């Protein structure tokens, strides 16, 4: 983001702050009083908790139930926004993988999956299937998505990707080399596209397995890269 500010000639800088979960409320209260603070980027594990500490939310943040950017108004009012899903879809599109009309299997039902699910439906996927280790969480996310998109095809399934065009790992599996696969990679076949949210390692075991089976792969970094401008514009009050 600092490179982005610098390229635009903006008098702004972003610095990392480490806040423990039990201190979040006090930290946010203190940030309200900082008059030269335009906003905050929020990451794990605070995205959901911080949504309850904002004074207002964008529609996307309200639907997803999580915030990853906060705009601080001059009077201290904090408005929460959510751009993870839009960043993910923008990254796929930039790589030439359109989501409209495609059948998508998404592994995961946490914060990242929630944002991605809403964004995929907003961008017109033909069907969204959710697989998650904890099936209740997958059902709960599917229901929230159906409440907003009642005409959409949204279902909960097992780990078999057969019959899908795009398979998304929206879990945290892959951060460690000995993690299990997020879905049954033996059933990946071309021309399926395998897409990741995990950024480190850049090539996860899921992407390696997909490539070995001849599928196109898409890493986790573009999801973040495509958000930089969105986050900066939101914090600057130039976009909602
Ligand atoms: P959450 O903790 O909200 O969700 C974690 C998800 O992973 C859940 O679906 C959970 O399943 C699943 N999971 C975790 N461990 C296991 C396991 N051992 N076996 C099966 N499933 C498992 O995390 P987030 O959604 O916030 O983040 C997920 C990932 O997305 C992280 O790696 C994060 O770094 C990445 N991310 C990347 C971004 C980017 O810009 N590239 C942006 C945001 C996030 P269950 O419900 O059963 O626990």
From TrEMBL:
The keyword Transmembrane does not apply. Its EC number is 1.1.1.25. Residues 97-172 form the Quinate/shikimate 5-dehydrogenase/glutamyl-tRNA reductase domain. Pfam families: Shikimate_DH, Shikimate_dh_N. Pathway: Metabolic intermediate biosynthesis; chorismate biosynthesis; chorismate from D-erythrose 4-phosphate and phosphoenolpyruvate: step 4/7. Signal peptide: none annotated. It is an enzyme of class 1 (oxidoreductase). Gene3D superfamilies: Leucine Dehydrogenase, chain A, domain 1 (3.40.50.10860), NAD(P)-binding Rossmann-like Domain (3.40.50.720). InterPro entries: Aminoacid_DH-like_N_sf, NAD(P)-bd_dom_sf, Shikimate_DH-bd_N, Shikimate_DH_fam, Shikm_DH/Glu-tRNA_Rdtase. It catalyses: shikimate + NADP(+) = 3-dehydroshikimate + NADPH + H(+). Residues 2-70 form the Shikimate dehydrogenase substrate binding N-terminal domain. It comes from the Bacteria. Keywords: Amino-acid biosynthesis, Aromatic amino acid biosynthesis, NADP, Oxidoreductase. The keyword Amino-acid biosynthesis applies. This is shikimate dehydrogenase (NADP(+)).
